[in-house]
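Private note to self, pasted from the team thread so I don't lose it. Backbone tokens:
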């Protein structure tokens, strides 16, 4: 999946935290669906935010506090993505390369 780094930079500055998290979750789901259409992504807010990836009977999750979300959003345009993908990878989600520039931006 290809993305526009400049547009993401503007979003990270001008969107509120929850809208930015929602945008990142949609981007993560679009990338996952390029790999396999069976992927689904859910975001839940209780005390903390929980992003869950489901593929058939497998689940991967990442959580973050509102403070972490705010800090990651202010660090760089892809810090939140990097955090989420690293957490999902630690849960066992395989990350594929060679599907556009998005994953390259995330792991620079």
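Design output:
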């Amino acid at each position: 999946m290809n993305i526009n780094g400049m547009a993401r930079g503007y979003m990270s500055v001008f969107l509120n935290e929850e809208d930015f998290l929602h945008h990142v979750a949609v981007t993560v789901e679009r990338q996952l669906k390029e790999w396999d259409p069976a992927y689904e992504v859910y975001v839940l807010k209780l005390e903390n935010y929980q992003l869950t990836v489901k593929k058939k009977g497998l689940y991967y999750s990442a959580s973050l506090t509102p403070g972490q979300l705010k800090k990651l959003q202010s660090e760089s345009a892809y810090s939140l993505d990097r955090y989420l993908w690293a957490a999902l990878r630690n849960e066992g989600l395989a990350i594929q390369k060679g599907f556009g520039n998005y994953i390259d931006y995330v792991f620079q």
